[in-house]
Write a structure and sequence with these properties.
Blueprint (H helix, E strand, L loop, with lengths): L2 H12 L1 H5 L3 E5 L3 E6 L13 H22 L5 E11 L7 E6 L3 H14 L1 E12 L2 E13 L5
Length: about 150
Amino acid sequence: MSHQQELNDYLTRHVPLFRAMQARVEYADANRLALTAPLEPNLNDKGTAFGGAMAAIAALTGWAITTITLRDHGETAEIVIIDSTLKFLRPVRETIVAECVLPDAATVETFIERYRQRGKARWTVDVVVRADGEPAMTFKGHYGVFRPEST
């Protein structure tokens, strides 16, 4: 199963907000990922994308790239967002598209090695939402991962 299908299936089943936003994973590979959501269910009172919807889809994009990175290295983990910084730069009047590029190879290697050695790790993921090809919102999310508890 492709990363795109796997993520769409998981998020649809386990994240009600993903369904309510009518979001979907547009593309996902080992280096980049994008989630999209139509404007209509994510409108604010001004007829533009609601900032909370943009924040949510950006957070999910960071979670998804973290998931793919772990799986591509044969690992699974519980993933949590620790904190984030958002900057709203311009209104979005079309489909919300949140894009993320995998951090550089050294960052990925450090992240995976730390997880393997300690059973937990942190890293930072940058996501951009665009409007008319220009950044409309930037998101910097700090994610933590830890070994799932045994049952």
